[in-house]
Design brief:
Length: 291
């Protein structure tokens, strides 16, 4: 099939980040294949093995970032996860972030804003949840909801939400300038796959808790969400914080691709183990002189 040929033709030694990065200009989501596996030409079993192989690498890099933060460094990484219901934001957290030390992960899932959150500007709750030095932050939904659900459901006037793209760009730019690497992922699933996953939630008593009757009503707005996503992906696709579209119909590919994105961005930070600010030999002698 053309699809698998396309995946095979890609440079397997290239950066996955470059392969899934959204090109500049208008975005047409229907042009992205939700079942594609850019950068990977194996099957599910091979994908799971490849993910396990990355585990020690991401864990080592994350520990170096944490160590840097514990010794005066200011840098951090923020993973922004966006996607329709059932796109796998939670699964990504479990399978990708589950490979690193939980002490170094600052995870926040953003829901409908509370009364307190609504009383502030839309960025307020996100500023409070930013990763501190050395932390790997994860936003499961983010300030992009303020140009997505808010736009689709007319929760504020167009005049208000349409100004937010520029505000978000300035916000992300300021994060990056202060040493936070921002990695934005849109988990892209097809409408059919979403239907299958909602059905699976209904069919499985261990998954029914994730289902809300409103999830079916939201499907009516699929097209409106696609348009809102396309605009967010176009207008907030900056050099400091570019967007990535992760084909997410295959969960194993989604996990592998996002792990690669994190590994690649952490590697680009040129992290190293902090050098001690004491004389190791002197401390060894002192210690050995004790009982
Ligand atoms: P879930 O991710 O399934 O737990 O659902 C969280 C819900 O919060 C989703 O239905 C989002 O659309 C909603 N949500 C997140 N941010 C906002 C926001 N700024 N305004 C309104 N609804 C939001
Ligand atoms: Mg939900």
């Amino acid at each position: 099939m053309a699809k698998s040929k396309a995946a095979k033709a890609r440079p397997r030694d290239g950066r996955v980040s470059d392969m899934v990065r959204v090109p500049r200009g208008p975005v047409d989501l229907s042009a992205f294949d939700t079942t594609a596996t850019p950068g990977f030409d194996g099957d599910k079993e091979a994908g799971k093995v490849a993910l396990a192989d990355l585990g020690p690498r991401i864990a080592d890099l994350q520990e170096k970032l944490f160590a840097e933060g514990a010794t005066g460094g200011r840098r951090s990484l923020l993973l922004v996860l966006q996607g329709m219901d059932t796109s796998g934001k939670g699964g990504t957290v479990r399978h990708v972030l589950g490979q690193v030390d939980p002490q170094g992960v600052a995870h926040t899932a953003f829901k409908v804003p509370t009364a307190e959150e609504k009383a502030h500007d839309f960025l307020w709750r996100f500023r409070r949840a930013l990763p501190g030095p050395g932390m790997l932050g994860v936003f499961d939904r983010s300030y992009f909801e303020d140009v997505l659900v808010v736009r689709v459901h007319d929760l504020v006037p167009k005049q208000t939400w349409s100004r937010r793209y520029a505000t978000i760009n300035r916000f992300e730019e300021s994060l990056v300038s202060k040493g936070t690497v921002v990695v934005k992922c849109f988990l892209h699933i097809s409408r059919q796959e979403s239907r299958d996953r909602l059905l699976a939630r209904l069919d499985d008593p261990t998954k029914q808790w994730k289902f809300k009757p409103g999830d079916i009503d939201e499907r009516e707005y699929w097209g409106a969400y696609e348009q809102a996503y396309a605009d967010a992906l176009e207008k907030c696709n900056t050099d400091s914080a570019p967007w990535h579209v992760i084909p997410s119909d295959r969960k194993w590919y989604r996990n592998w691709a996002i792990t690669n994105l994190l590994v690649e961005h952490l590697e680009a930070m040129a992290l190293d183990w902090p050098k001690p600010d004491f004389d190791v030999e002197e401390q060894r002698r002192r210690l050995l002189a004790t009982e």
